[in-house]
Amino acid sequence: MKKDYNFIPIGFPLFIAFLVFLFLLLPILVFLYTGGIVAAFARLGFSPAIGFLLFLFTLIGSAINIPIKRLKSRAPLIQERVVNFFRGSYRVPVVISEDILVALNVGGALIPIIISLYEFIRMLVSGHFIQILITIISVIIVSVFCHMFAKPVKGVGIAIPFFLPPFITVLVAFLLARGNAAAVAYISGTLGTLIGADISNLDKLDELGAPVASIGGAGTFDGIFLTGILSVLLI
User: Fold this and answer.
1) CA nearest 154: which of 117, 207, 221, 105?
2) Does some domain include residue 200?
3) What CA–CA distance (Å, rounded) separates 176 from 48?
4) What is the dihedral sign for C-alpha 115, 121, 123, 126?
5) 197 in helix, strand or coil?
6) What is the pLDDT along the chain (235 residues), one digit of tens a residue?
């Protein structure tokens, strides 16, 4: 007599177990992630509520670019055009020539600049002039190192390894800063990355072949955001 055997694939229970584990772990990871960021802003003098709002605005602002100017592209800009042929759709790369929009990213540039100015003003009002001098020196050092390792990426913009700015910033702040090291780390990390990776490479934007060149966005947002947070937490 022929018998039918039904087997449950071993991969299916493991997949379900993974989904359950992820469902249970996700709230914990979100709490630790946001909690660490709020703690970093607290070390900069912000209340937990303001710190969470700054984190939220940074995430939302990462998708917002403020137009600054337009440049004439010296490299071909490639876009995809959808062509319908025999009931099929095909994406065909088309070489076009148009201007490059230079923009300022809200989450990766504008908000970090505002926070850095706030910390500078706090130092100035408190009379920490030596701390201000140390911060300026730290910004210059981080900018030089970021400029050395930032690379233009065709079709994207300027990119930098995300782990490099936090490492350089923590090292510089640890060696130079004494009191209020968290503020020194944040300012030198964020402004140093912006200046060294993005602003110092503005003359290369017209060669990248990207329709939009975002200062503080694309390849440098992760570096700026992580630098500001990790530097404050690790110092």
Assistant:
1) 207
2) yes
3) 28
4) negative
5) helix
6) 555 544 444 455 555 666 666 666 665 555 555 667 777 888 888 888 888 888 888 888 888 889 988 877 666 655 655 555 555 555 555 555 567 788 899 988 999 999 999 999 999 998 888 889 999 999 999 999 999 988 877 766 777 887 888 888 888 888 887 667 888 889 998 999 999 988 888 887 777 666 777 888 866 766 677 777 777 776 6
Domain range holding 80? 65-234
Give the H or E element holding residue 56: helix 48-61
Output phi, psi for 77, to 5 deg.
-95, 130
3-state helix, strand, coil in the chain (%, to 5): 60, 20, 20
Instruction: Find out whether 225 and 217 touch, Cβ atoms under 8 Å.
Output: no
d(CA 151, CA 64): 23
134 neighbors 172 (Cβ within 8 angstroms): no
Q: Which residues contact 81 (CB under 8 A, 6 or more apart)?
A: 91, 92, 93, 94
Residue 49 inside a domain? The answer is no
Assigned domain for 211 exists: yes
- 55 domain residue, yes or no: no
What's the domain count of the chain? 1
